[in-house]
Amino acid sequence: MSKPTGDAVLRELQRVLEARKQADADSSYVAKLYANGLDGILKKVGEEATETVMAAKDGDRERIVYETADLWFHTLVMLAAMDLGPDDILAELERRFGLSGLDEKASRPS
Is 33 in contact with 77 (CB distance < 8 Å)? Predict the structure, then answer.
């Protein structure tokens, strides 16, 4: 089986993340994250966000890519835990495409 590429990576990863929801916590890292509950998952997202910011602050391009991949991964775990996935986020980005960021922000409820 060949490795997925492009947006197929997100869809395949979502499939795996969904399957891990039913797995024993000792069987995989993702299953262990789910076993720790949403608070544990959110803590990991926060940690990875901080590490991504620090890598960018240091200007280390290789580490920026590595840490951003970690951040995206843990964010996908969070989304899956909330019964959401990449398609939900892509739909929102598509909705915003061509819309001024200032207009989009102003249209948000307070």
Answer: yes
